[in-house]
Input
Amino acid sequence: MSKVLTLYRQYRLDRRFIFLSLTPILLLFLIFSIAPIVWGIILGFYQYSALYQESPFIWFDNFTNLLKDEVFVKSFWNTFKFVGIAFPINIVATLILSLGINKIRSTFWRNTLRTMFFLPTIAPLSGSAIIWSTMYKNDGGLFNMILERLGLDTVPWLSDPSIAMWSVVLMTLWADIGFNIVIFMAGLDSIPVQFYEAARLDGASRYVVFWKMTLPLLQRTTLFVTVMTLISYFQMFPQFQVMTNGEPQNATMVLALNIYSNAFQYNNMGYASAMATVLLLIIMVITLAQIRLGRSKWEY
Amino acid sequence: MEHLKRLRFVMVAFVLACMVVSGCSSSSKSEDPGSAKVTLVWWTHDNPSFVAANKKRIEEYKKIKPNVTINYQYFPYDAFIQKAKAAYAGNNAPDIAQLFGTWVTDYAKNGHLATAPNQEELKKNYFEAALGAYTVDDQIYGIPQEYNLENGGVLAHPKMFQAKGLSYPPKTYAELVDAAKQLTVRDGNKIKVKGFDFVSGDNIFFTFMSFILQQNADYWTNDGHVNLTSPEAVTAMTKMKELVTIDKVTDLTRFGDNLDSSDYFFKGSSAMTIRGPWTIANGVNTYKVDDFDYIPMPSLTDSPPYFAAESGWGEVVAAKSKHKQEAWDFVNYMNGKEQALDFNVTTFTVPARKDVAVDPAYLQKLPKLKTSIDVLKYGKWVGPVQDRDFFVKQVNDNFQLIASDKISVQDGLKKIEKSVNEMIDQHLSVGKKSS
Output
């Protein structure tokens, strides 16, 4: 009987510990994550501006207006275009680079290269965007100076609607790939060496080893990298605001920038909240699909 | 004994408390309310010449009213816009703010600003275009320090005209376009030096509005909406498009660039650039150049060179300020004739006060601004645009599409008109003034 009582006391103590340790975190999560999301969704149904003294409830007007708003439609497709270009390049490039760096035997060079690629990630994105803007300048920009030296035509990097998005993608990749390289390298390091030795003994080619062994064993890392990259790319904002502010001809107007412009430039917070809700739904659907597709059932 | 001690303690405490209370009340009674110590918080943007002028006023005011301390804070333009919105929305606004006129309407009609105390005097002494955005329901909510105009004058390089043997300055619109064509320098398909540049965030919009006004037409309807599909609006937009597509004196390559179109002018990348006179300060102070003029922009038609103008920077006092009287005293001091003249001279801005504009001392100190002073009489307040940035963006976005032949002039104007009128409806449906 006393043993049962002791176990029960232990159980109650454990429960109390769990309750005490989780409550603050859950409260913080509720106040700073869930509440703003819910509040943002609710605002989407109001004609709300912080400056106004009245904010009428307008049902779904903000959402139906989105469909008629050409800038929103353009920003919607621009966001997908940006993600569609930058995301696969990022994943493929970072995977190849991390595989390459991982093959280097010298610890010094491996660490140097990893640090080199990671350095731009430390710099604030808006700061990097300012530097890249000066390099992209039509007159006197670094890239055009190089092109001129080589006897080639200069390129209107940020002022041509057909080129501007690619220019921002290039900058983003430079600024961003270091993070994924480090994560992929950590994933590669965690694959037991015995697997490779066994594959080599079995006479497996490099191609087979990569496709049949490395890639499947990197599945969890890949899932993390793809989910995080996709979410951050859908939300990309600083470089678009600093480098182009959505120009030329709204060719680089992405959803996050459009939300910002409506909320803070035009004081149309209700409408901006409706846009933010759409962005939230897009990210949620894609992330859930990714997690479902990338689910793995193995351990090592 | 113990009881007596306690009683003595209570009496001493009571006497001390009485002394403290009487001490406090006697000091506030004896002091003149006008000399009580007051700290006023004043926010502005960080344009260096504006800051210099503002700091001068603070130093002067310290000597006149030593009891008033001005806590002066200035912020980068973009940050300032957001900070001001957040502060007024959160009822935590500074006592005084130097706001751009066109923003003032929204703040005023939502009850965030105090009405100016000297209404009739302001109406008499200030240009109507300068006061326009500060006025809601016939009440003035601030005092403008400048008459903001982006039109009326053109930055021009006389040496470029001389080198080509062209008559200077161009007297008619046709002469201007003709000169611009000859002054445009090309490198293959690209323009190296623009003959006449108007492609910038403000100037596409204001050139368009001015071209409509110069045809003796208006872009406002009687019910406070815009009419941008009139034949005059079509002509105005067509003329602007032709400058890019037929005359080829400018292009869209620098639109949205980090540098202002006036920066390119001062670097010699355009022969003529339509821009506000306030950019002259940039040329003189930053680029250290003086080989340029600010010449009159000829009218598109035979009519006078009418133009649309915004109400420029000026001071407002928060409705929730605890020191409204002191704040207005300081604002009134800043806008005295002598102080206003000094502000306009220091900042290269056009006076909002009529008597400063006609004061010979102004043009003596800023001869380059003669063009702007001469055209002031043709200026019309741009009107109740509600959301200025949204309106300007609609015009800019669609002009770019029109000039790139992606949509027709008529379709572009229809789109601008529709979206701007929707925005106006939205603004008119909420935020009526509370008082």
